[in-house]
Amino acid sequence: MLTKSNDLLSTIESLKTPSQSKLGSPLTDVQLKPDEAKQIESLVDALETLNPYRYPLLYKPQLLDGVWLLHYSTSQEIRALTRLKWGFLVGKVYQVIDVASQSFLNQAFVTHRLALLSGFVLVTAVFTPATEDSPLPNDKLNIQFQQRYLAITKIGNISTPSLTPFKVVEARNPKGRVPSFKITYLDENLRIGRGGDGGLYILSKSQDNLLDYFSFTKKKSKT
Fold it and tell me: Under CATH, which number does the domain 2-222 receive?
């Protein structure tokens, strides 16, 4: 399975442009040729049949804990990040999960192509194991998004802590359905899943040293 996991991640990296590789931005299907997207789907299908934990929320929820880096997605939200206006480019996109508090945050770093500005968008959320299809936790999470933070971390080379964040708004949840995430593959280093809209997500465990944004959001919520 380790070989197949490495094959999947190396294939994704090989399809990135030099700019995408430098920024660490996730790849999406709309940036690929149809046969390239099918190649990724085929590798995903092969891994999902070997999923070592069919009921991860019941037997291995601790594997979800920590920082995850997004490599590839077919979701509308991630596609939109690849089409930012006014010269902005998306960089690394993370998901940080805290199983104990049943909460997570999604964080997308953004920079201007001329290095005029850099910052991030951060969304907080809580989750619960879905019980619609099973009385016991299995592989699906129901999600409620809470707040969205917009931050400018630098203007040119000058740090701007007073603009981190410069705006906090209530996050929007989709109308008519409960946001969800179904885990279709999980091991110690790789996670594959699909959102409620069917969008595919491929993430790997990251050792990147992020700030404690859980504490950050709590402090900003009180001010």
Answer: 2.40.128.280
**Could you give the 3-state DSSP secondary structure of residue 182?**
strand
DSSP state of 216: H
Check pLDDT > 80 for residue 218.
no
How many whole angstroms separate alpha carbon 96 and alpha carbon 178? 21
Residues β-bridged to residue 59: none
Contact 119, 153 (CB under 8 A): yes
Helices in 49-129 by DSSP H: which ranges? 56-59, 76-81
Domain ranges of the chain: 2-222
Return the SS3 of 218. helix
pLDDT digits (tens, 9 = 90+) for 100-156: 999 999 999 999 999 999 999 999 999 999 987 777 779 999 999 999 999 999 999
Distance between CA 103 and CA 97 in Å, rounded?
Answer: 6
Q: How far is CA 210 from CA 36, 69, 105, 161, in A?
A: 32, 11, 12, 16
